[in-house]
Specification:
With about 260 residues, the protein is α+β, with helices and mostly antiparallel strands. The chain is about 20% helix and about 30% strand.
Length: about 260
């Protein structure tokens, strides 16, 4: 795991960023579960910050079949949407490694989501799943896989909250797909760390922050697509969730060359 201020290889860069998001309503109240789940529900309430009386738990794929449009099991999930958007805008990278990063467990333990993605997209390179990085999945993944990136690789970060607040009616599912390359590129990876960012965050240039593993990337994607990042700018991606905090520093060398498909 990255130590505070851990430098990453200067030859690693981000060549493309694709994002996807869906509002998910396939959650059920605690009353749908046996009383034995209550101790775990109390821990979930403390972890998520959602009052126990309003805590809902995501349903599995079978329960989703009767959910509102956009939640049905037969429709594309956010991971598939982000990966499809990335594949549609750029060269074929299916012979390179694919790293699938989830913030938590699968919603349906009977479904091997990574295997499904590999089959659907006919991925030929190595594939690896990384789970339970919690809110730091979008930050620490670059440190964890840096050694495993040959000429290039794809990192797919997925956030599907296990819990939702009944007052909101659901939660947002998000995914970010990153095309990584060796050598210099439009967005250079500089360093990452777990804990608070070094120095004052407001002096970092462009600060993008959020609670979930995809939040800072989604905000950075929006700013890059809007042309608000100039060559030479520094980007600080800061994630501060209920349990953990981390940061990632990027240097924009030529942001105009970055491939940014529209959000799916």
């Amino acid at each position: 795991m990255a130590e505070p201020g851990s430098p990453l290889a200067p030859s690693l860069c981000v060549d493309a960023i694709a994002t996807a998001g869906r509002w998910h309503t396939g959650y059920v109240p605690l009353s749908a579960f046996p009383a034995s789940i209550l101790p775990a529900a109390r821990r979930a309430s403390a972890f998520s910050g959602i009052p126990l009386d309003h805590l809902m738990v995501t349903a599995d794929a079978d329960a989703d079949a009767d959910a509102a449009p956009g939640d049905a099991a037969g429709e594309d999930g956010v991971s598939a949407l982000a990966l499809a958007a990335l594949a549609a805008r750029g060269e074929d990278a299916r012979d390179e490694p694919l790293f699938f990063v989830r913030s938590g467990p699968l919603r349906d333990a009977m479904v091997a989501e990574l295997a499904g993605l590999v089959h659907r997209f006919r991925w030929e390179g190595d594939d690896m799943g990384l789970t339970h990085l919690e809110e730091l999945g979008g930050i620490l993944v670059l440190d964890l896989i840096e050694w495993a990136v040959p000429a290039g690789a794809t990192a797919l970060i997925c956030d599907e909250p296990l819990y939702a607040d009944a007052r909101a009616g659901g939660a947002r599912f998000s995914a970010v797909a990153l095309r990584l390359r060796r050598g210099t590129g439009p967005l250079q990876v500089v360093a990452c760390g777990e804990g608070a960012p070094p120095g004052a965050p407001d002096t970092a240039g462009h600060l993008f922050t959020g609670r979930g593993p995809c939040d800072a990337w989604l905000a950075a994607h929006q700013a890059l697509a809007a042309g608000r990042i100039a060559p030479g700018d520094t980007l600080l991606l800061h994630t501060k969730g209920p349990r953990r905090e981390g940061w990632l520093t990027l240097h924009a060398t030529d942001p105009a060359r970055l491939r940014l498909p529209a959000p799916a």
